[in-house]
Specification:
Layout: H1 2-27, E1 32-48, E2 51-66, H2 84-113, E3 120-123, H3 128-131, E4 139-143, E5 146-147, H4 151-160, E6 166-173, E7 179-186, E8 189-191, E9 196-198, E10 201-203, H5 213-239, H6 251-265, H7 270-293, H8 300-313, H9 319-348
Antiparallel strand pairs: 1-2, 3-10, 4-5, 4-6, 6-7, 8-9
Helix pairs in contact: 1-2, 1-6, 1-7, 2-5, 2-7, 2-8, 4-5, 5-7, 6-7, 6-9
Length: 349
C-alpha cells in the first residue's frame, strides 16, 4: 500500500509539472508529439489531436515531447519557431505549476491544521536566549535579517546554519497592550541532548486557526516560501560541503521515506496520515520546481538560459552546440541519478 501511495504521489507531482509544459505549448500553438507519465517502454497509449498520451513502465519521471524542441524544423508549430517569450512561458510553466501545486497543498494544510507562530513558550535559564534578555511570550520576527513567521522556519535556519551567530529581533507585548521591539546577537551552543546547536528556547506548539480567507492565503504563501527557502538552504549546505551525496535521497529513498511516514502516523488515524502525506507532497513539489529551475543543461533552467541569451544577443545559439551541451548535461545527470539510486539501495539494505 505504501508503495502504491508513493508512486501515486510522485506520479501526480510529475504529471502536474509536465502538464504545465503541455498546457502552455498548446496555448502557444506548439505541436506536442507525446505527453507521457513514467519512463521506459509504453504500457498503454492513445492518440488524440495529434498528441500521443502514454503511461510507461517505470513510474518515475515523465515528458512532454514537443515538435522541434531539440532540432530544427520548418513547421510553423515547431517549438524553435515560436517567439522568445512564448518559449520562455512553455519552459517555465513546469516549475511554476509545481509551485502552484505546493501553494494549493499549503492552503489545505493551513486550513485543516492551522499554523504555528514564533511565540516563545519558555526560555531555558542559563542558555544564550535567556542571557540575551528573551522571555516567555516574546515573538521572534527575524533572524540575521530574514523574516520568520513560524518556529519551523526558525528551527530550519538553525539546522542549515549551525554555529552561526544569530542577530535576532523580537517583539514583546506588555499587559497594557503596548508592543516593544528588541534585538540582540546570540551565539548558539551545542546540546548533547538534541545533538545540535541551540539557543535555549521552546516555542508555543499550539496551532493557531485561520480567521478569514485573507489570512489563509497569506499563511499559505508563507508556508510555500518556507519550503522553497529550505531547498535553497540545503543546496547551500551541499556547496559548503555540509551535505554529501550519501545524504541525498532519490526515488527509492523517497519511497522508503513515504513508507516510514505512513507506518509512523497510521496509528494516529487516517487524517494524520493524509496530512503528513500532503506535507511531504508540498516539499517534493517545491523541491522539483526549484531543481528544474537551476541553470543546468538539460533541465528547464538550462533551457531558459539559452533562450535568454538569444533574447539578449538577438539571435539563437547554434542549435547543434546547444544540443551537445544539453546532451552532456543529461549524461552527467544520469550518472548522478545512478549514484543516488545506488546509495538509496545500499541504505535500504
Amino acid at each position: 500500500m505504501s508503495l502504491i501511495i508513493a508512486v501515486l504521489m510522485l506520479g501526480i507531482i510529475i504529471m502536474i509539472h509536465e502538464f504545465g509544459h503541455f498546457l502552455f505549448a498548446k496555448l502557444n500553438g506548439i505541436g506536442v508529439i507525446e505527453f507521457s507519465l513514467g519512463m521506459g517502454p509504453r504500457i498503454w497509449s492513445c492518440e488524440k489531436g495529434g498528441t500521443r498520451y502514454s503511461f510507461k513502465a517505470l513510474p518515475f519521471g515523465g515528458s512532454c515531447m514537443m515538435l522541434g524542441e531539440d532540432e530544427n524544423d520548418s513547421d510553423e508549430h515547431a517549438f524553435n519557431n515560436k517567439s522568445v517569450w512564448a518559449r520562455i512561458s512553455v519552459v517555465a510553466a513546469g516549475p511554476v505549476f509545481n509551485f502552484l501545486l505546493a501553494f494549493i497543498l499549503s492552503l489545505v494544510l493551513v486550513g485543516a491544521l492551522g499554523y504555528n507562530t514564533t511565540k516563545l513558550l519558555s526560555v531555558t535559564e542559563g542558555y544564550p536566549a535567556q542571557l540575551a534578555g528573551l522571555q516567555a511570550g516574546d515573538v521572534i520576527t527575524s533572524v540575521n535579517g530574514r523574516k520568520v513567521h513560524s518556529f519551523d522556519e526558525f528551527k530550519a535556519y538553525l539546522f542549515t546554519h549551525p554555529q552561526k551567530d544569530l542577530d535576532l529581533t523580537w517583539h514583546r507585548t506588555d499587559p497594557s497592550g503596548k508592543q516593544d521591539s528588541y534585538s540582540a546577537r546570540i551565539s548558539p551552543v551545542y546540546s548533547k541532548d538534541s545533538g545540535s546547536y541551540v539557543i535555549g528556547v521552546a516555542f508555543d506548539a499550539m496551532p493557531k486557526a485561520v480567521q478569514n480567507p485573507i489570512e489563509l492565503l497569506v499563511q499559505g504563501l508563507y508556508q510555500v516560501r518556507f519550503q522553497i527557502q529550505y531547498v535553497f538552504d540545503t543546496l547551500s549546505m551541499m556547496v559548503r560541503g555540509m551535505v554529501s551525496l550519501n545524504d541525498i535521497s532519490g526515488p527509492v529513498g523517497i519511497v522508503v521515506m513515504i513508507d516510514k511516514t505512513v507506518e509512523a502516523s497510521s496509528s494516529y488515524g487516517l487524517l494524520n496520515v493524509l496530512m503528513n502525506l500532503i506535507n511531504m507532497s508540498l516539499l517534493l513539489s517545491a523541491n522539483l520546481g526549484i531543481m528544474n529551475l537551476l541553470p543546468i543543461p538539460a533541465l528547464d533552467g538550462g533551457r531558459l538560459v539559452f533562450i535568454l541569451i538569444e533574447a539578449l544577443r538577438g539571435r539563437p545559439v547554434d542549435p547543434e552546440k546547444e544540443g551537445m551541451i544539453h546532451m552532456a548535461g543529461m549524461a552527467v545527470l544520469m550518472v548522478l541519478m545512478v549514484v543516488i539510486l545506488f546509495n538509496d539501495i545500499i541504505n535500504v539494505l
